[in-house]
Amino acid sequence: MDCSTARELLHPYEDGALQPWERAELEGHLEGCGLCQRELEDLRRTLWLLGRLGPMSAPRGFADEVMARIATEEAPMRALSRRGERALGGGLLLAALLGLFLLFQTGEKLAQTAASQVQSAVQGALPVESPSPAEPGILLAEMEDRWVAFLESLTESPGTEGLGFILGACLLLMVGGVFLAHLIVTGATASRSVWLAGASNRTWGNWGVPPKG
Amino acid sequence: MIQPDETCLEAARRDPEAFGELVRRYQDKIFGFVYRMVGDGEEAKDLAQETFLRAFKALPRFRAGAPFSPWLYRIAINTTLNFLRGRRQMAHWEVDAEMASALPSPERIVEGRETASLLAAILLTLPEHYRAVLVLRHVNELSYQEMARALDLPVSTVKVRLFRAREMMQRRLQEKGWGRE
After folding, report:
1. Is A55 part of the contact surface with chain B (CB cutoff 8 Å)?
2. How distant is the Cα of B85 from the closest Cα of chain A, in angstroms?
């Protein structure tokens, strides 16, 4: 072992962090090297001095002040969170009402159009020269074709009613989605929310308030 | 009976009073670390409080089952180093060679509290990352592994940094006549 390696090992040696074989090797080197022995003495003196720094105590009332700060800083966040939830709820309610309004407004007209399509399908399927009723299979197939054609026309060129209907349906879907997501998130953080809600009315027990002055 | 940190942490997620127990448990260690890093009691108190406040706010992100103490030390280290960087930039405070040269020689120093305060002053003249390892090791008495976790560094890097920090401290002490006789 050379002196450079030995000097580096002196520190973990003094910290008790050497493997037994490293320790034995270093001690073997120290026995025959006065320079490294003096290095060790210097290091021990420095470590002894550093040890004089010693542990410290936090000021009196420190923990109470920390807990009071936590109580103070959490309160506005809780209020902000509640305001945010109220705003979100209001927005969702408005969106749901608008969606329902659009659906009812446009749905009635669209239902009338669909009904007339189906009615004409029924009439078209009836044989003109024969008073006997049409085959039920032919009638159903014709009604289905007309219904599909109606839905295709709605998606390809929706018109004002169609657009209103789609917008209304999207709004309701969005409200449902946001509501579901909110339920999932609040469910995941339920335990935290419980104490946050309770903490607003809590006096913080024996934590008290930070001592003045 | 003293509850383990993990039990207190679990409880603290539901009830802040349980976090109060952790504050009481670590307040001396965190305050001691910060005080030796900044050298001012009022600033140390603010920074130590800030450390616990940040830890409390970060509790939901704390990985369950992980050891609490290195995580708390890491917050304290980051909070303190950020503060010291800000102070250096503002040039509001400079602990420089002048401070160290003003120290009395060992012959004039009596045993006890005075020695500690003079040592602390020399410590403040070291670069912050050297100061941090010395304080963690000699004030907080952390092992190499604990220091590595707290500093988020490999153990080998911690060993090298501690070696250099002690050498620098030793040189400063020798300059003041506190070294070899």
Report:
1. yes
2. 24
Measured CA to CA in angstroms, residue A143 lies from A26, A134, A147 at distances of 98, 13, 6
Q: State the angle between helix axes of A34-51 and B113-123 in degrees (0 to 180), rounded to the nearest 10.
A: 110
DSSP state at residue B60: G
Q: What is the DSSP string of B26-57?
A: HHHHHHHHHHHHH--HHHHHHHHHHHHHHHHH
Instruction: Give B140→chain A minimum CA distance, Å.
Output: 7
Which residues in chain B are closer than 8 Å to A47, comparing Cβ atoms?
138, 166
* Mean of pLDDT values over B132-147: 92
If you search the block for the tokens 């002053």, which residue do you land on? B121
Spatial CB neighbours of B118, under 8 Å, sequence gap ≥ 6: B103, B104, B109
Minimum-distance CB partner of B20 among A58, A59, A207? A207
d(CA B5, CA B19): 10
Residues of B in contact with A54 (CB under 8 A): 116, 139
For the stretch A152-173, pLDDT in tens is 776 666 677 777 777 888 888 8
Q: Which two tokens stand for residue B83?
A: 């503060």
Contact residues on chain A for B34, CB-CB shorter than 8 A: none
**Angle made by CA atoms B170, B173, B176, in degrees to the nearest 5:** 150
Question: For B136, which residue in chain A has the nearest alpha carbon?
Answer: A55
pLDDT, residue A207, reads 31
Question: Nearest residue on chain B to A205, judged by CA atoms?
Answer: B17
B12 touching chain A per CB within 8 A: no
Q: B100-119: per-residue pLDDT in tens?
A: 444 444 545 445 566 777 78
Does the predicted interface ipTM exceed a cut of 0.85? no
Q: Residue A94 and residue B125: Cα distance in Å, rounded?
A: 64
Tell me the DSSP string of A50-90.
Answer: HHTT----PPTTHHHHHHHHHHHHHHHHHHHHHHHHHHHHH
Residue of A nearest to B163 (CA): A11
Nearest to A11 among B15, B35, B163 (CB): B163
